[in-house]
Amino acid sequence: MNIVATPPAPAGPDPSANPATPVSPVDWDHPTDPHPGPRLDHVRTYVSSGGTDGHLWHGVPTLLLTTLDRATGRPVRTPLVYAEDEGRYLVVAADPDGPRLPAWYGNLTAHPEVRLQVGTRTFAAWARTADAVERETYWQALTALWPPYEDYQALAGPRELPLVIVEG
């Protein structure tokens, strides 16, 4: 396993030529952003720079995950710390403010088609919850990248925080 914290090069086949590539009539280009505060500031910096600024946040790589709100069907954008392994993006469904799961996680479990912006690349992808073996494989790498995940896990009590794998 080769965990890398930088986005892969944009080379490769055109994803629109792949029949497994997600296709949706949703207006993915106009998502709802976080409420005012540090997360919104981060998203605005990331988007306004085309991903050249904001990709690294507090020294760790971040991506922008856009999910479909499970109640309204509207796209919602969230900045997340990530790791990358062989083109798969790994994120943790943690709410730093408490023990509940973040809204974006409920959204992607209802609608696994998502959009990612990783640095300067934006693309369609599918998200899923890692199985127990995958979670065990990747958890240590993610907590090494972002140690507060251990604190978030402690807040969650006996419930394991889901690790999410996004592939595009």
What topology emerges from the helices and strands here?
Layout: E1 3-4, H1 38-48, E2 56-57, E3 60-68, E4 75-81, E5 83-85, E6 88-92, H2 103-110, E7 113-118, E8 121-129, H3 132-145, H4 148-155, E9 163-167
Antiparallel strand pairs: 1-5, 2-3, 3-4, 3-7, 5-6, 6-9, 7-8, 8-9
How would you describe this protein?
The structure is a single chain. This protein is of the alpha+beta class. It has four helices and nine strands; from the N terminus they run βαβββββαββααβ. The protein has helices at 38-48, 103-110, 132-145, 148-155, and strands spanning 3-4, 56-57, 60-68, 75-81, 83-85, 88-92, 113-118, 121-129, 163-167. Strands 1, 2, 3, 4, 5, 6, 7, 8 and 9 form a nine-stranded antiparallel β-sheet that branches. It starts with a strand and ends with a strand. Mean pLDDT is 88; it is low at 4-17.
Question: What tags apply to this protein structure?
Answer:
168 residues; alpha+beta; nine-stranded antiparallel β-sheet; 29% strand; globular
